[in-house]
Design a protein that fits this description.
alpha+beta; Acyl_CoA_acyltransferase; 8 strands; 170 residues; single chain; Aminopeptidase
Amino acid sequence: MRVHLETERLILRHFTPADVDLVTDLDRDPEVLRYLGADAASRDVVERDGFFAAIEKASGEFAGWFEFRPLDEGEVELGYRLRRRFWGRGYATEGARALIAKGFTEGGVRRVVAFTMSVNTGSRRVMEKAGLRYVRTFHEDWPDPLPGAEHGDVEYALSEDDWNRQHGLP
């Protein structure tokens, strides 16, 4: 098991082929995919760079996954998908903050971006708690729009300079 980083309550590690069934099970919950749609299966995250399995330390259970994937030079996309029983316990915020801190202090990251549906208040709150700020609302032309799509999607972002200011660094 290759650990990427640890938080107080989570281990974020690289995926292994044995994780495919866990990710598939996560995607079977319609509430997990509520703001993503049934076509948003994440099985391929097991094979992609920038995705990490989240393991709850106390139980050793697979809690979900985090994305911290390079987009452009110095820019990464933050994402997360957790099993429903781990919602509302601060795990998404904890994992997001840890990835952001590592990215800015060790990874050469200059900007973190995240996206969600405008109506996904839970995910938006995680982004805000992790230090990201609202950038814009935009509208995609989805072939089969989800309920709430008429309100658009939102982008949040955090620059390295803003992160440094938030943490009292030069």
